[in-house]
Design brief:
The complex is a heterotrimer of chains A (329), B (298) and C (257). Chain A is mostly helical and 329 residues long. Chain A is built from 14 helices and four strands. Helix content of chain A is 71%, strand content 2%. Classes of the chains: A mainly alpha (329), B mainly alpha (298), C alpha/beta (257).
Chain lengths: 329, 298, 257
């Protein structure tokens, strides 16, 4: 909100406490063993992905089931450029980002004109197409085998060899991602998006080019997804088509819904909780996807506003988006 | 060089698989007409049909005919469970379209994973319904299974037609598809109709899955391609009529078979999905604009 | 100078003629009204003027420029801003946030500006904030500025929609049945706001059902019936017009209720 009356309690609630919580989690992770570090790392990566998804769904009120396509683009882009062509990871990440944005614009332009089930199916198809291509384009992607030997993040000669060092960077990237999304939301651009979520008719009447702004939001979400894909590739050092398959869609929506669609920190909280589930459910390792699906269905049925529906946990300043998202969702 | 035999052969194959798409497409329409919901888990019924039939066949050792006939009600039952446990609570709450779609996608993933855990991830198949064959007409092989698919497809359409026109439940279901509020006012239990539509739709999917398995294979992940292709068939057919979906399926099957001859099999699914996008983008309002009520909102 | 010029606008839906060669002009700063019995074609005409619908034939000019066939957002960008018969508020946003959204047309900046926040961006945001407070006062919604829009009583929702449209600094404000569903007090408050808007030099066209409101505030009235324009003039002329009397006495509404 750019309203002039931001009080210190507001900034406490919206900035200081969440950031402190994130740093606390980081601290705990850094003093823990390898497995926890990995899980928290995943949480940060998915936090980036879900923040982008939230931008498109929560703020703009649109639906896409195919954001995994752009994560795959980012992941494969980074993997191929760094492992095969020895590019600098940061450069590869940026190039993949731009590529994803351009492709999102090209694909989104016709697709976002669709509505309802058609839009849902078309976006879902984007994810499926990318998945199929990543399997079939053997010479580039090694098919089912996946790509390995992807170097960790780093600049020039500095490689973040240790997982803990990488985790710090991932957390920072995630925080920057949240910061960017808030900055975009609280601006003329963000207001136009929220207008579209609220009423396309009214947005039109106020001179907002609805199609263009939807596309812009789609591109923003795709760029987030791409960054998440790149980070994943470097963090794990290996990617395969399955990483960015349909279960990624379910996983990310579980996180987003659990945390609360349309809230600033909800996606991050959701990403953290869901990423830690495997640790909690150690015995259910093979059941993971089943559990995620069940959790998602249960949330959709019983608590469509996610944890943010519990107003005790969340300040209610952004109620607007929350309920809007629920309605559009 | 592609010769005539090859083309005709692929046409024959295309018709077979296209009819299967058509059956799946009809399944989409049955639920959509009753509820305005597009069940994204439709393909899972095809997978279950094949898997359940194979399981009955191998683990219980019952004859194929018995296994096939038993599988259909089992899968229809699973369809009803999905309606009761997933769709109905959301439907009652007036949940948004998008949330219901997401829930059906989650259901599909859940069922696929449970299938891996219980039955394994290996592809499997069983023999054609009638041994022998294929029938050879001037170098073109027509498997006997194709006749089964043709016959059963025709039978399904006939049964559906009779059901929708001759039975009380069928007529009630049709009334729902025309106007749910009015149907409710007339005392038609709309909820039961939604349940019925899921049972029917799942049963149809199962029949499709059982019929197609001998011609290729079934595995936990065959649901999505069949679902997507069934959806395209339904769109081509105008998302309302059974005959239209069947015709749409055949058209799609033949087009894909032709594409495989021309481009090779590797990118078969990519081609199908691209075709989906093309169809969607060229007919955003539905080919016969029968999709209008579903086209609103997000 | 003529702000809005409607010329021979005809709209056919199949065999039905919703608008039959309707023409009228609205000059700068004028408060005009289009009235007619239910089903006379008012809403169709309104949609054509606002760019939501293209006419079968005929043209609409705004500031001398043909706007027929332009997408609605482009028409709005030119300064012809409409409201909706069924209020289209951003329900879950606060009253204040609703108004802030209205400034889209008269502000600039996209993704880059939002990220980098140069000096002009901050100044612009400050201007928006200040102007929002003025508009809250203008329509009398300051007390409920932080409330969610859909928690407002209906009358205030209408006022909010007008305030949001005013944020876009329209040259012509099109109001679609603004008094529909309002009680007497609410209608009076609305009439007051409309008149004050007009007195600031903004031309207003309202398509309205409420005769009393129209007779009280409009300077020029266009009457349509069965898709045709049957009369045009000031309130006194309209009251005395035989065809108008026939159309209305034939219906259920009187002219002097």
């Amino acid at each position: 909100m750019t309203s002039p009356n931001i009080t210190s309690t507001d900034s406490m609630r919206h900035v200081v406490i969440p950031v402190a919580a994130v740093l606390a989690v980081l601290g705990i992770a850094l003093s823990s063993s390898g497995y926890v570090v990995t899980l928290i790392g995943f949480a940060a990566i998915y936090g980036v992905f879900c923040t982008g998804l939230n931008f498109f769904m929560g703020y703009t009120g649109q639906a896409s089931f195919g954001q995994n396509a752009f994560a795959a683009l980012g992941g494969y882009g980074s993997a191929i450029l760094t492992a095969n062509y020895y590019w600098d990871p940061v450069l590869a990440l940026l190039v993949s980002m731009v590529l994803s944005g351009v492709i999102a614009a090209a694909v989104g332009y016709p697709t976002l004109r669709l509505r309802g089930h058609y839009l849902a199916m078309a976006t879902f198809a984007l994810g499926l197409i990318t998945y199929e291509i990543s399997i079939e384009w053997n010479s580039l992607t090694q098919g089912y085998m996946g790509l390995s030997g992807i170097p960790p993040l780093g600049i020039g000669k500095y490689e973040l060899v240790s997982e803990k060092h990488q985790l710090v960077v991932l957390t920072l990237v995630m925080l920057v991602g949240v910061w960017v999304s808030v900055r975009l939301r609280d601006s003329r651009f963000g207001r136009a998006l929220r207008a579209i979520a609220g009423s396309e008719a009214a947005a039109n009447a106020l001179g907002i080019n609805v199609a263009r702004y939807k596309l812009a939001a789609f591109v923003v979400a795709a760029v987030y997804a791409s960054v998440a894909g790149s980070l994943f590739a470097h963090f794990v050092g290996f990617i395969s088509p399955e990483v960015f398959g349909a279960s990624m869609v379910i996983l990310s929506f579980t996180m987003l819904y659990l945390g609360g669609v349309g809230t600033t920190w909800g996606p991050i909280i959701g990403a953290l909780i869901v990423s830690l589930l495997p640790e909690v459910l150690r015995g259910l390792k093979e059941m993971q996807d089943v559990v995620y699906s069940v959790v998602l269905i249960a949330i959709l049925i019983f608590a469509p506003r996610g944890l943010s529906g519990l107003s005790v946990l969340f300040p209610r300043k952004q109620t607007g988006q929350t309920k809007q998202a629920e309605k559009n969702a | 060089m592609i010769d005539l035999t090859q083309i005709l052969q692929s046409l024959v194959n295309g018709v077979g698989v296209g009819l299967i798409y058509g059956l799946v497409g009809i399944g989409f329409c049955v639920i959509y007409n009753a509820s305005g919901i597009v069940n994204f888990a439709q393909g899972v019924f095809v997978m279950l049909g094949g898997m359940v039939c194979h399981t009955l066949l191998t683990r219980l050792g019952v004859p194929l005919v018995v296994a096939a006939i038993l599988s259909v009600p089992v899968v229809a039952g699973i369809g009803m469970i999905i309606e009761i446990c997933v769709v109905r609570p959301m439907w009652n709450r007036g949940a948004a379209l998008f949330a219901i779609i997401l829930a059906t996608i989650a259901t599909q993933i859940m069922i696929e994973r449970i299938t891996i855990l219980t039955l394994g991830d290996q592809p499997r198949t069983f023999g054609e319904f009638t041994a022998g064959g294929p029938l050879k007409i001037a170098n073109i092989a027509i498997s006997y299974q194709l006749f089964w698919i043709l016959g059963c497809g025709a039978l399904m359409v006939l049964l559906l037609f009779l059901f929708f026109t001759k039975t009380k439940a069928g007529r009630a279901l049709r009334a729902c598809s025309q106007n749910r509020e009015a149907a409710a006012l007339l005392g038609i239990p709309v909820h039961h109709m939604l349940l019925l539509s899921f049972a029917l739709s799942a049963g149809l999917g199962a029949v499709a899955g059982i019929l197609v398995t001998p011609t290729q294979y079934t595995a936990f992940n065959v649901g999505t391609p069949f679902g997507v292709n069934g959806f395209i068939a339904a769109i081509i057919g105008g998302f309302g009529s059974a005959g239209g979906a069947l015709a749409g399926g055949v058209l799609l099957g033949v087009a894909q078979a032709a594409a495989i001859v021309v481009f090779g099999a590797g990118f078969k699914n990519v081609a199908a999905l691209s075709m989906l996008l093309v169809v969607l983008l060229m007919f955003p309002q539905g080919i016969f604009s029968a999709f209008k009520s579903g086209g609103k909102g997000h | 100078m003529t702000v809005l010029s409607v010329k021979d606008v005809t709209v056919r839906f199949g065999g039905l003629v919703a608008n039959d060669a309707i023409s009228f002009d609205v000059s700068e700063g004028m408060l005009a009204a289009v009235i007619g019995p239910n089903g006379a074609g008012k809403t169709t005409l309104f949609n054509v003027i606002s760019g939501a619908m293209a006419p079968t034939s005929g043209t609409v000019r705004f500031n001398g420029e043909v706007i027929t066939g332009l997408p609605q957002y482009e028409v709005s960008q030119k300064g012809l801003v409409r409201t909706y018969q069924l209020v289209q508020l951003f329900k879950d946003l606060s009253v204040r946030a609703n108004i802030m959204t209205g400034f889209h047309r008269v502000t600039k900046g996209g993704v880059l500006a939002a990220l980098l926040r140069p000096r002009w961006f901050k100044e612009q945001e400050a201007r928006i904030a200040a102007r929002t407070e003025e508009l809250l006062d203008f329509v009398g919604l300051r007390a409920v500025a932080d409330m969610e829009a859909d928690k407002l009583p209906y009358g205030q929702q209408r006022l909010l929609e007008v305030a949001r449209a005013l944020a876009a600094e329209p040259r012509l404000l099109l109001l679609d049945e603004p008094a529909a569903g309002l009680n007497m007090q609410e209608t009076a408050a609305l009439a007051d706001v409309i008149q004050r808007v007009n007195s600031q030099g903004v031309a207003v066209v309202l398509v309205e059902h409420d005769m009393q409101l129209v007779m009280q505030i409009a300077q020029k009235i266009v009457v349509i019936d069965f898709g045709r324009k049957i009369a045009e003039g000031d309130p006194a002329q309209i009251k005395a017009h035989p065809e108008v009397i026939a159309a209305y006495l034939g219906g259920t509404e009187g002219l002097d209720d």
